[in-house]
Amino acid sequence: MHIKQIELSGFKSYKDAAPSEPFSPRINVVVGANGSGKSNFFHAIRFVLNDAFVNMRADERQQLLHEGAGAAVPQAYVEIVFDNSDGRFPIVRLKGKSEVTNLLESAGFSRSNPYYIVQQGKAADRDRRALEFALLERDLSSNRKKLEE
Asked: What residue stretches are annotated with the RecF/RecN/SMC N-terminal domain (predicted)?
């Protein structure tokens, strides 16, 4: 799996939508003159892939928005597109409401209390791993049944 393309808009030195050229699965080089946005490009990648930004204060997040000539930018986004053609990252597809319900119940959610609020950054790694394990367990069970048929 590798990064296929990145698009930035409103993020630091990138005011307008700026899609990157497609990346190679092997080696990529980012070059440019001083002040052309190379560091901000990599800052954007870290922004998406690193948990450090979850706990940023509002004023720190405001500094991520483009501040240059022209109208102010009210929002920003960074989109990273991955190429998973090697299948390294499994894609799980749930079929039907009962499968989704069973998966959520295996992760600790209850039918009797359908209301939950999980604040951003508050889901523990332990909880995420439990959900991933439940998905894997379900897939293994499904594959066993198919082999037995």
From this structure: 2-117
